Amino acid sequence: MSSLKFTLASSFNILKTVRSNTYPKRTIFTQFHFKLLKGRCVLPCRQSGSTASGAEKGEDTVLKWFLLLIPVSTFGLGTWQVKRRQWKLQMIADLNSLTTAEPINLPVDPMELNSLEYRRVKVHGRYDHSQELYILPRSPVDPDREAREAGRLSSSGESGANVITPFYCTDLGISILVNRGYVPKNKIRPETRMKGQVSDEVDVVGVLRLTEQRKPFVPHNNVEGNRWHYRDLEAMARVTGAEPIFIDAVLESTIPGGPIGGQTRVTLRNEHMQYIATWYGLCSATSYMWYAKFIKGVRL
């Protein structure tokens, strides 16, 4: 709405400026010739009027086609946003299909892993609770709420951490990193959730994730203080001795009394409908103004 008001105001200002810069100059020009050629004012006045009229028509023609760029450009931007929305919806559908597909056995080939982000995999083994890592602050994943709050600077006040635990895969003979899920602030310390600290071998289904680049304004990881703010797989692997392979345990792999799984965020910001409405609205408004001014001859 603010963009619409700005464009309309700009269009009115352009028209006023052009009008104020054109007509007074023509009047001064005519008066000057009238005083200079008193005895022969008829022919010079006709010539000056014809010259001014031609100049006015030329300026109006330039202005006419210049202002037409506004509705044309806004129509193009609206159409571009339609295509962007289709692309975003397809991306969301693809991510959802990956995170809900039947799990496959975890591959260990790094080249294969790099092409399988968000793919569900399954592993069998046991957790090493002595080397837990904590990514914080984190709020529990709620896809419906996150879709509503996309683009906001703040979200839910609920805050805690994601618990990252080395997991020894008995069938593969390697240790990987598993994001067991979310715990609130008062459950971050392991002794507050001993029921979920199982030592038996378990089956885990998780969503494969790759390393994460630090975003602007996100603090650096505090390795010594065990306060992590983003996934740095190489650093996490060095600290725990695990391979730089990371999965988010799904909700169904949650162990009673332990962290709540299913913390994979796949909600993408999708505000393209607002942009589409804004650009097409601007196109309609400025098209009407152009038609009223240059076709109907209405003074704006």
UniProtKB/TrEMBL annotation:
Annotated Pfam families: SURF1
Gene Ontology CC terms: mitochondrial inner membrane
Membrane topology: Multi-pass membrane protein
Example GO BP: mitochondrial respiratory chain complex IV assembly
Alphabetic keyword roster: Membrane, Mitochondrion, Mitochondrion inner membrane, Transmembrane, Transmembrane helix
Broad class of the protein's primary localization: membrane
Keyword Ligase set for record: no
InterPro entries per the UniProt record, alphabetical: Surf1/Shy1 (IPR002994), Surf1/Surf4 (IPR045214)
Location(s), subcellular: Membrane; Mitochondrion inner membrane
Family: Belongs to the SURF1 family.
Function: Probably involved in the biogenesis of the COX complex.
Protein name: SURF1-like protein
Organism: Anguilla anguilla
